[in-house]
Every structure is written in structure tokens, then in C-alpha cells.
Amino acid sequence: MAAADRPLVVVLGASGFLGSAVVRALAAGPARVRAVARREPDVPDGVEVHVTDLARPGSVAEAVAGCDAVLPFAAHIRGPSGWRIQEGDETAERLHVGLVRELVDALRDRTGGPPPVVVFPGSNTQVGRVAAERVDGSEEDRPEGVYDRQKHTAEKLLTAATEAGHVRASSLRLPPVFGPSPAGAADDRGVVSTMVRRALAGEPLTMWHDGTVRRDLLYVEDAARAFVTALDHAGELAGRHWLLGTGRAPSLGDVFRAVAAAVARHTGKEPVPVVSVPPPPHVEVSDLRSVEVDPSAFAAVTGWSCRVPLDEALARTVAASAER
Question: Could you read off the pLDDT of 6-41 as tens digits, one per residue?
Fold first, then answer.
């Protein structure tokens, strides 16, 4: 197939932790890839680079011109409390909601061929409080935090655009994703990688609870492969959200002890202690609630499954963090 005949996939936020992983996964396939980022990303050979500030009006339409599919990973998750978003954070609102609104507008007037595909990265915490710890995507959504509400609003914009026939959009709702960050990409600031860095520094690993809170944790390569797989099943997935996860949710106490042990094996030192501490003022209800994800609906449609066991994923993350 001639290069011009291959589908063009645009990755917005290509220098981020997950966006950069998806670019690498896409580059190994047949599609043309355009990596869009605010700074020059480090990409595999053959990937087109488009440097722009997606907060600038008109930049989204320029970035996705001529595309067949878009993966919008651009995000703003810093703020006064680390990865938290506060009410009134205009930059976060712009990137999480405004960007999607502009994306829909840019793709709406496309003519010829099927509607462009959009695979959106949602969060499994968008569901809010549910009676059961295990979620499968059939629950009624009641998003609580600012970030979850913004993600939910963006999802609804894409669902409406799909119903109107302008795009074929789906949302893959992610659990906490962790793993090594490649050179030139944003660091993974999630809880697992944060604890790896602390253990490498010889610091104790702290929990805001007694360690029994359970989380489904997804390795970054498995997450990236899910987005690539979703592109191949765009028609079957369009119009709804799908949950990603391993189907298992170990306690964070066990995970943190496994992190300490993995670092000890790598360094030859004694494992750092894992301790409980009082939660900080910015703690949210979701931080203290166990969540286990059932990804079987997505797996049944696409054939996707997790391939990297937790112990191996932790060992890779430790090795990469120590090298950096």
C-alpha cells in the first residue's frame, strides 16, 4: 500500500506518559502516525511530528487535518495538589473539555469516506460511588471529582457527535496506569511509579490507609496496546465507553511491599519500610475506596488481554527508574 493510502492516526499529547507509549505502539503497525505535542517529542523513525500548543485557538483543527483517527491524550493534571484538579482550573477545562469540543467541530465537516474515529482516554473513577467494588461498565455514572466530571463531559460530547454521524467515538476508561517513561516523555506521576522513586531514594513508602484498599493496576504497554486494538474495532466500539483493567485488584499494601522488594532486589539493599500515615487535607473519597475492574466486555469485542504480570511490570519499572 502506498504511503498516501495508509490511514493517518493523530496522537494529541504525544509527549505525555501514555501518549508517547501509544505513538511507539502505532509506529510498529501499518498506519501513518502524526505525533502532536507542545514540545518536540522523541518518536520512532517515520512518525510525523507536529509541534503546537493545543490551548491556542485553531490549533486542534490544524493538528488533525486530513486524519482518519484521533487519540486525544493531551491533559492537564497538575494543580496545587500534585495530580489533582481544583475547581476553576481554566487550563484543565480547556484541555479536557474545550479541546474535545474543538475536535468534534474540526471533524464534523469532513466529506468522503467513513466518519473519523476517536478513541478517548477516560477514567474508571468516572462512575463515582457504586455499591459493589467490582465495576464492569454497566453502572450508572455519578462522577464526583473535578477531573472525573470533565472527562465525563468530554465523553458525552463525543457520544453526541457519534449519534449525529460526525465521528465514530468510543472511550476506554482506564484504571491507574504505570510503567517506565521513555527519554523525552513526561514522567509517570502515578502512585506506583512515585513509590518506586521513593524506594530507590531509600525513603519509606506511605499509605493513607491501612493498606487494605485495592486497586486494579494496568501496565503502560498493555494500555497502549488496547488503544491500538480499539482502532481496529472502531465500528463495534463506537458510541459507548469500555473498561480496561487486569480483572484483579491487589491491596495497595501488598503492591507497596512488592515495590519495596523489587527495588531491594535491584539495589541489593534492605527493603524500605511500608507505613500508614494520616491522609492529607486534599484526600478524596475515591482515594480510600477499593475498585476492581471487569474488562471482559472490551476483551470479548477486541480479543485484547493483559500480557505483562504485575511482578514483571514492577521489575521493568524499577530498572528503568533506576537507570534514569
Answer: 999 999 999 999 999 999 999 999 999 999 999 998
d(CA 97, CA 93): 5
- The 3-state DSSP composition of the chain as helix, strand, coil percent (nearest 5) reads 40, 15, 45
CA distance 280 to 265: 31
Query: In this structure, what C-alpha cell is assigned to residue 160?
Result: 453526541
For residue 189, the one-letter residue type is R
Neighbouring-strand partners of residue 172? 121, 242
Instruction: For residues 169 and 84, give the distance between their C-alpha atoms in angstroms, rounded to a whole number.
Output: 27
CA distance 98 to 102: 6
Here the cell at position 76 is 492537564
Contacts of 97 (CB under 8 A, 6+ apart): 150, 153, 154, 157
pLDDT tens per residue across span 85-96:
666 666 777 878
pTM of the model: 0.92
Amino acid at 252: L
Q: Where are the beta strands (DSSP E) in the chain?
A: 8-12, 32-37, 48-51, 69-72, 117-123, 134-135, 168-174, 177-178, 205-207, 218-219, 241-243, 274-276, 292-293
Closest to 122 measured CA to CA, from 264, 37, 244, 254: 244
- How far from chain centre, in Å, is Cα 146? 17
- CA 196 to CA 203: how far, in whole Å? 10
- CA–CA separation, 107 and 179 (whole Å): 33
297, three cell numbers: 466486555
Q: Is 203 helix (H, G, I), strand (E, B) or coil?
A: coil
Domains of the chain: 7-180+217-247+296-307 (3.40.50.720)
Is the Cβ–Cβ distance between 135 and 292 less than 8 Å? yes
